[in-house]
Structure formats: C-alpha cells, structure tokens
Design brief:
Blueprint lengths: L19 E9 L5 E9 L14 E6 L2 E3 L5 E7 L6 E4 L2 E2 L1 E7 L2 E5 L7 E7 L2 E2 L7 E5 L1
Parallel strand pairs: 4-12
Antiparallel strand pairs: 1-2, 3-5, 5-9, 6-7, 6-10, 8-9, 10-11, 10-12
C-alpha cells in the first residue's frame, strides 16, 4: 500500500459468539510487503426481533376474584412466559410468584380495593391489557 493509503476490511467470525475475541490479520500488498494487525474486541449482537422474543400474553386468570385483603393464590396462564421478572395486580407487585410449568405462573394476590389488570413482565416486555387478565377484589 502507498504511504498514508487507507482501506477497509469487514471480518466475520464463525461461529458467532458474544464472548471477547482476538485475532491477527495479515495484509500483503501487491509488492509482497506484509502488515500484521492485532484485533481484539467483542461482537455486538442485535436485539431479538418480536418473532424471536414475543411479548407475553395472559389468557386465563383463576380465580378471577378474591378478597380485598389479598392472600389467595392466583393461577395465571398465557403464552410466552419466559424468564418472568415481575407479576403485578394493577400497580402492585404480587408476592410469592412461581412459574412451575411453561406459560403458567402462580402468585399470592396483594391487598386491593378495585378491579385490576394482572400483568406479567419478561425481558421481551410486559403483557398488554386484555379482558382475560382482569382480577376483581371483593369486600
């Protein structure tokens, strides 16, 4: 290469990884002069698409009502319950939440005074409000 000349390289590592990487790139010009360049870094990955990591959806809440003092265990069924981080009754986080089987979570209902939506949060996002996720507090 001529002095002060520039060039651009695109390097693809296979298999892909998210770990730190290092490599040595040797470039030989047309007259046989070799230049060695050390490369280090990490691969940046694109965020998952909605098809790869879909939002969770609540489809059934059982029971759908309970006392205003809270306490009953409520079973929440749906889709895409992967790595559930929080379950809420309205704005209040439920206690003692477990998701023993895929797409089913069981939570202890907190105290409340009105009808609320139950939401499930995962790394993909939080469930959208729909008719199936309603929970009614009764006296």
């Amino acid at each position: 290469m001529a002095p002060n000349a520039t060039c651009t390289f695109e390097i693809a590592f296979a298999p892909t990884t998210t770990a730190a990487l290092s490599a040595v790139l040797t470039v030989t010009d047309s007259v046989g002069t070799a230049t060695t360049i050390s490369l280090t870094g990490a691969i940046a990955t694109a965020p998952p698409t909605p098809e790869q990591n879909p939002l969770p959806v609540v489809t059934v809440v059982t029971p759908s009502a309970g006392p205003s003092a809270g306490g009953p265990r409520v079973t929440i069924k749906g889709r895409n319950f992967v790595n559930v981080s929080v379950t809420r009754f309205g704005t209040v986080a439920a206690s003692d939440v477990s998701c023993p089987i895929q797409n089913t979570c069981i939570a202890t209902s907190p105290a409340g005074q009105k009808d609320v939506e139950i939401t499930i949060a995962t790394p993909a996002g939080t469930t959208a409000i729909n008719r199936a996720d309603r929970y009614a507090y009764r006296g």
